[in-house]
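Thread: quick sanity check before group meeting

JM: Hey all, I'm pulling together slides for Thursday and realized we never actually wrote out the predicted structure for the chain we discussed last week. Dropping the sequence here so it's in one place. If anyone has concerns about the input, flag it before I start.
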Amino acid sequence: MPSWRKAGKRPEPVGEALLRVECYAGYKGEQRPIRLHIGEQAMEVVEITDRWYSPGATFFRVVVEGGASYILRHEDPQDLWSLAARRERA
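JM (edit): ok, ran it. Output follows.
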């Protein structure tokens, strides 16, 4: 089984690519990721399997089309996203 791979803590680079997260914000204003852009590649989020909170940040474990999993970190005060870990399709 593949293991989680650590990624950079800052939202700008993911390797040589840039990370951008498109979100849905419901009537409560809570954000949830619906699409990831890593460089030129766009991936639809098909499932959010977990969500947890730490001071100043919210983490999401998501599965994208194709089966790869990512852990995304949203720094709430700065509204910044970063990739905390990834696991290729099992």
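AS: nice. The beta strands are 5-6, 13-14, 17-25, 31-38, 41-54, 57-64, 69-75, 80-87. DSSP finds no helices and eight strands in the chain.
JM: adding both to the slides.
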